Amino acid sequence: MLKNMSGTTVYRCVLENTHKKYTCVPCVCCDFCERVLHEYTCVVMFMWFGTQVYSYACYLREIRLTEHIVDYILIFCRKLVFETESGVGLYHFQMLDLQPSKWINDGVINGFASMLNYEEKKRISGSNIFGDDDKVKGIKPRLFGQTNCFDEDMLLNRKHKEAGRVEKFKSALFLVVDQKESLMSLSEYCVIFFPILEHNHFYLVSFMERNAITVIDNIDASKSPIHLMNNDNFFQKSTPYKVKDIFSKYLKMVNHHKSAEIEIADVVRLEFEWKTVKNTVDCGVFVRRHMETWFGVTADKWDSGFPLTHKEKKACLTNLRKKYAIKLVTSEANKHRSRVLDEAAEHEKTHGIGCF
C-alpha cells in the first residue's frame, strides 16, 4: 500500500527494480507511484528543461549569431530519445509537449501507442500477472493504432474514392502491426483503438470484438466538438462514422468474422464520471490514459484512476505527464533507452535536479 502524490491511498503496486529498470503491473496506482517519479526525476528534468535551449537556438539563428553554436544546440535537440524497432520515433524537442498545460503533438501520441503495442505483446505472452479479479482484461491482445490511420487527408479529401480510402488505411495499418501480413486480418485482437485528431482535439474511436463501436472523449458531449451523425453520403458523416465506414469496409475485405455485425452497429459515446468541460489542452494525456486502462468493459467497471474534482484531476494530469515522459524513455521498446538515461544522469550532475 502506498500514498500517491495527492495523498490518496493506492493499492496493488508491484515494482521490480533491476539496474534502474522498473517493471510495473499495469494497474492504476503505478501511474502515481512516488518511487518511480522519484527514481527518474532526472529523466523528467532532462526531457522538459534540457530542451529549453531549442527555442533559444531558433532565436539565435533568427538574428544570425554564431552559427556553429546554434547548429550544435539544434543537433542536440533533434536527437531521437525514443524509437521502436518498427521506426516510430520521438525527438528530444518533442518531449517539451509533456510539460504541464501544453498541448501534446500527435508524434507523442503515436510513440505512446507504439510502446503500448510492445507492452501488450508482453502482457499476453507472459505469465498471468493479473489474477482472477482481472480476467475481464481478457487473453487476447489489444491493438493501438496511430493518428495517420485516419488522417485529415483521408477523411476530407474528395479525390479519394472508397477503394482509395480503404487502401490508405491498409497501408497505415501495415506499419502499426510491424509489417506482419499475418496480423492484417485483425482477428488476433479483442479491442482496437484509433486516436483521432479533429479540431485540435484528440479522442479515441475503439472497435471491440463484441461488435461495439465506442467514442472515448474526455470532453462532455454538451461541449465537445465531436459529433455523432451518420449519412449515406460519406462526406456528410461525422468523423466517427467516417472511421466506422472505412474500417468496416476493410474488415469485409479481409473476411473478418465480425465484419457484418460491425457494419450495422451504431457508434456510441462512452459516458464516464471524470469528463471535463473546459479542459482543451490535456486531451492527449486523457487519450493515453484511456488507451492504457480501457479493456472494453462498461464504464461502471472502468477504473482509470482519475479523480473527480478539478484540483485533484489537474494534479493527476501533471503526474501522468511526468510518468509518461519516464515511461517512453525507459520502455524496453525504446532502442535509445540506455543512451538517454546516461545523458539524463549527466544532465543531473551538471545542472542538478531542481524541482518540478
From TrEMBL:
The lineage of its organism: Eukaryota, Viridiplantae, Streptophyta, Embryophyta, Tracheophyta. InterPro entries: Papain-like_cys_pep_sf. It comes from Helianthus annuus. This is Papain-like cysteine peptidase superfamily.
